Amino acid sequence: MPSTLPEAGAAPVDGSLPETALAEVGQRPFGLYVHVPFCSVRCGYCDFNTYTASELVGTAARASYVDAVLAEIRLARRALGPHELKVQTVFLGGGTPTLLQPEELGRILTSVDHEFGLADGAEVTTESNPDSVDAAALAELREVGFNRVSFGMQSAVPHVLRVLDRTHDPLRVPLVVEWARKAGFEQVSLDLIYGTPGESAHDWQASLDAALACQPDHVSAYALIVEEGTALARQIRRREVAMTDDDDQADKYLVADAMLEQAGLSWYEVSNWARDQAARCRHNELYWTGGHWWGIGPGAHSHVGGVRWWNLKHPTAYIGRLAQQASPARAREMLDEETRRVERVLLETRLRDGLAVDVLDEAGRGRLPQLAEQGLIQQDPPAGGQVVLSTRGRLLADAVVRDLLP
Amino acid sequence: MIRNFCIIAHIDHGKSTLADRMLQLTGVLDERSARAQYLDRMDIERERGITIKSQAVRMPWTVSSGESAGSQHVLNMIDTPGHVDFTYEVSRSLEACEAAVLLVDAAQGIEAQTLANLYLALGADLQIVPVLNKIDLPSAQPDKYAAELAHIIGCEESDVLRVSAKTGVGVQDLLDEIVRQTPPPVGDANAPPRALIFDSVYDTYRGVVTYVRVVDGKLSHRDRIKMMSTGATHEMLEVGVISPEQTKAEDLGVGEVGYLITGVKEVRQSRVGDTVTSQHNGATQPLGGYQHPNPMVFAGLYPIDGDDYPTLRDALDKLQLNDAALVYEPETSGALGFGFRIGFLGLLHMEIVRERLEREFNLELISTAPNVVYDVTMEDGTRLEVTNPSEYPAGRIAEVHEPVVRATILSPGDYIGAIMELCQRKRGQLDGMDYLSVDRVELRYTMPLAEIVFDFFDQLKSRTKGYASLDYEPTGQQVSELVKVDILLQGETVDAFSAIVHRDDAYSYGVALAGKLKELIPRQQFEVPIQAAVGSRVIARETIRAIRKDVLAKCYGGDITRKRKLLEKQKEGKKRMKMVGRVEVPQEAFIAALSSDSGPGDKSKR
């Protein structure tokens, strides 16, 4: 969860949604995101909304967090109206969700099922750090209802993990993957980060090898972005650590794509690869295809029917609001038609399924022949009416999007 | 019993404060209405503490002590512009006086521009009244600087008055001394009228207000008047004096200083240095010394937003009403679009004009690097004047003349070596060197104006830890080995980056600019070669590699809003790009590459 919130209008205290948004409820798949804003250590590169125990000393944030989450789930159910609304996906992210006890995470899932009902075959994911779970915990997580787990592996190389402030032993990754399999998880995903200062091409290849050796169903590989205000940004400014390099990251992206594809994982979004259609992260696909989701927890973002809103960031403030039966939303924005179109271009261009040509305006369509000629999109006219990036185009996706929009 | 005097001072040596203090002591201005630095009217002047436009104020004074105690006088204080670009205006202001108060900061000593103006005053045969100001400062060294002034003007140290304009100490004595030392004006009251225009200011409500010093005869509000340089005649609407606001009078007689209003709408019709006489039975011989102001420095000014071109044109038209020295003509640049090539008296003039355009007319502008005027003779004998480097001829050039100046540098003696090295590098020739005091030295160089315009002043300041001061005046032209360096992006010449430099400097200039551009221009989707060339010969080359990654490859989760804002920011950035061929060049690249980081004259008061 990024830490900088955009400016927008006020959100109603009761969490209610405008009629126009409610009218769209049920027309698209619906999911829940639950943000767990706790970590045992703050990683140097991370600008997500998360807090360590020492940052929350003297508050009851950790103790009353789950109750607050349950309160927001009930609020969500009230706000979304009386109609049946089964949850297709649940995603617990952070932070480090597995810092909570499996039993606590189970209470959250029970509440979701009680309030909304989990759809048949719902995808229920938790993120986890390799060192925050063991075989028993994974078995319990499976037991309480999770069927997908995403491990924050990041790298298999100790000196790279050190720069990232990741505390786990890389040798633990294959173990937790094996335990997850034994526990009966249907989908196991690994998160990787490339382009960390000091990471050689060889290091990156070793990380990819190690990840593939675990035979994951899904891999997310993200370029390390140096965000303002992080410890890493300060280290770079003080020249203790080298700046990340775009060309290096481009090379590593290409290596990752080639190795993952060769291992049978195909890209379905710029930074995501899956073994097959079933292994794609359906929850993330909600984000990218205009689906509806309610983001529960401090700083979480939601979208329903063209309304986006986001919660107060600090756990104490968030819990306080819910204790007063009020919505924890900090602000919201109502998207007009053109903004919704812009978002579709922005998001769907990054997908392998591509962007339907008719989402583009005339000027945007007029750009397609040149983009094809530059080798940034796969072909023009687009096959099946969908604009799809080439491999090189994926690396220049922002430029393509800017080109396609007014 | 008239006394006409001016004050010569460096910009931050306290002239305006002293003027305010005099206005108070003479009762012209009471404490309450004494806006600080009353005489500097324009905001830019006030902010930067410099006086651009001179004015005159009339003050009654009864001598308070000495032999002539009790005698009543009229003091006309003529405020002079303090900067190198306005030497001509200064000289006209000096012509209107019989004495000059030489005002020097007792903590800093005399500066080069003050020295230059002092020489002008001595040349105009004015009585010099030396004064040290700011004697109340703990860092003041009045004895040291009194000795220095005495040495320069050849008086006794005891003749140097000591005042604090801030506290008022010594100002009354100074006023008495001005009466005592300033010769009364001499002129023929019965001759046809002749008056010197020493300033001319456009006023939105009244049209042009012309400031004059009457030399002979009498200018009456009933006269029709004639400008002697052009022969143009105007009806006189009003004459008067400033004390401290405009006050109507019947007429202005010999030695008097005041204003006249004729209904003229542009200051060009009422030029500084011109002689005013009456239309009927007027004088036949003008007062001497009139010059037409010639622009010395040229630069292209372009609106960042092309739609602002008409606004820029209107703004220049308006500024010209009040600035007789401003010349401009439309210009088109392949890289920058539609704009104007503008001629200025010098760098400060350029900066003031640009600042006023941006501030008063809310324009965002890109300026090309300033350049001087070149006189080019071709082998076939044809001659042309080049005010824009991109128009420098490509054919067979026989000879090029460039303007040269005589530069005067004052500095603590410790920096002589550093200054000489810099001046040599800037093609300067040493004309002479004098010690003003034990540790202060005056260096005189002949130097191409182009070098001063480039980055000389900044270099001088940085090499002398800010202690050196500079003054220069045009002295003529010299033949030089000059070449035009072009910059090519992807093989296409970018006219805005062309520069005329000395043959020996071409290579280092080309390398430096190509390197700078490589840093400033973002990577494109294709490789962009940057070349510096003299004619068809490439002298430097850099390459901007093609961009390979332009994608946000990070997990932003459900925060789509942030992603969209990022896109909007990126698109905003793209809008500020100028297309040069297929290459997107950010405005910032033009601004940074074109700024030689050189400032005008003196920046010490910024």
UniProtKB/TrEMBL annotation, chain B:
Subcellular location: Cell membrane
Signal peptide: none
Keywords noted in UniProt: Cell membrane, Elongation factor, GTP-binding, Hydrolase, Membrane, Nucleotide-binding, Protein biosynthesis
Annotated EC: 3.6.5.n1
EC class (word): hydrolase
Domain of life: Bacteria
Pfam families xrefs: EFG_C (PF00679), GTP_EFTU (PF00009), GTP_EFTU_D2 (PF03144), LepA_C (PF06421)
GO cellular component: plasma membrane
GO terms under biological process: positive regulation of translation
Domain Tr-type G residue range list: 1-186
Catalytic activity field: GTP + H2O = GDP + phosphate + H(+)
Primary location group: membrane
Positions that bind GTP: D12, H13, G14, K15, S16, T17, N133, K134, I135, D136
UniProt GO molecular function: GTP binding; GTPase activity; ribosome binding; translation elongation factor activity
Membrane topology field: Peripheral membrane protein
HAMAP family (alphabetical): LepA (MF_00071)
Role played: Required for accurate and efficient protein synthesis under certain stress conditions. May act as a fidelity factor of the translation reaction, by catalyzing a one-codon backward translocation of tRNAs on improperly translocated ribosomes. Back-translocation proceeds from a post-translocation (POST) complex to a pre-translocation (PRE) complex, thus giving elongation factor G a second chance to translocate the tRNAs correctly. Binds to ribosomes in a GTP-dependent manner.
Homology family: Belongs to the TRAFAC class translation factor GTPase superfamily. Classic translation factor GTPase family. LepA subfamily. Belongs to the GTP-binding elongation factor family. LepA subfamily.
PANTHER family, alphabetized: TRANSLATION FACTOR GUF1 HOMOLOG, CHLOROPLASTIC, TRANSLATION FACTOR GUF1-RELATED
Protein name: Elongation factor 4
Name of the coding gene: lepA
